[in-house]
Specification:
By secondary structure, the protein is of the alpha+beta class. It has helices at about 5-50, 65-70, 95-105, 110-115, 120-125, and strands at about 75-80, 85, 140-155, 160-170, 190-200, 205-214. It folds into two domains: about 1-50; about 65-214, Nuclear Transport Factor 2, Chain: A (Roll), CATH 3.10.450. The protein is built from five helices and six strands. The protein is globular and about 50 Å long. The termini are far apart.
């Protein structure tokens, strides 16, 4: 084989190696870029939760004995279209159920609150740390439950009524154990989806199917 052919083969081999190296570098760069973007998103999520200055949790305090909290507007309003009512006897069944759930939150009764939730939502919320299972008493005030809509359907012999309610409230001295996505004295509305199951014999049961940011 003459020298010219040897040089041509050598050049082709080097060129092929360069192509392989360039492709490898591009692939590694894409992977590295994807990882960096994922890490950046994780940092942004962490920062979005960490921008609030939460108060130190205090499990020994009874907020229902604090004059500062008792002096706030702790009523629970229910808004149905253009009418806002504060008398519990005018609440719908779904609104009354959510009002009781919020009362659980105020009292720090996490067992009662969690018992109102669907297992699917509860597991997701605890996994994502949307709230901690053993949250403290929460100083909720300025509470308003607003009717958004309702749908009824049949499920076997049962009638299922699904109601969506927008819920606004503020938390004085928020410690981040129940809401870590908002600071003290802020409003960040959520939507509660409440399901009522009516059986053929008239027996009823209710649960909170989901809670999402509004």
């Amino acid at each position: 084989m003459d020298k010219k052919k040897i040089l041509l083969y050598s050049a082709a081999g080097v060129g092929g190696l360069l192509v392989v190296l360039i492709v490898a570098v591009l692939i590694l760069g894409a992977i590295s870029g994807g990882i960096d973007r994922k890490r950046q998103q994780e940092r942004e999520l962490s920062n979005s939760r960490g921008t609030y200055n939460f108060f130190e949790p205090n499990r020994s305090v009874n907020i229902l004995e604090e004059q500062e909290y008792l002096g706030l507007d702790r009523r629970i309003g229910y808004k149905y279209y253009e009418v806002t009512m504060y008398e519990p006897e005018y609440y719908s069944d779904a609104a009354a159920f959510v009002a009781d759930a919020l009362t659980d939150v105020i009292r720090g009764d996490h067992a009662s609150y969690c018992a109102r939730l669907s297992k699917t939502y509860l597991n997701r919320a605890l996994y994502n740390e949307e709230f901690l299972e053993d949250f403290t008493m929460q100083r909720l005030y300025g509470i308003l439950i607003e009717f958004l809509g309702e749908a009824e359907e049949k499920s076997g012999n049962n009638t299922v009524v699904r109601t969506q309610l927008k819920v606004d409230y503020m938390i004085r001295k928020n410690d981040g154990l129940f809401r870590n996505d908002m600071g003290s004295d802020m409003i960040r509305a959520v939507v509660y989806t409440v399901v009522k199951v009516i059986r053929p014999d008239g027996a009823e049961s209710m649960y909170i199917e989901d809670v999402l940011l509004y």
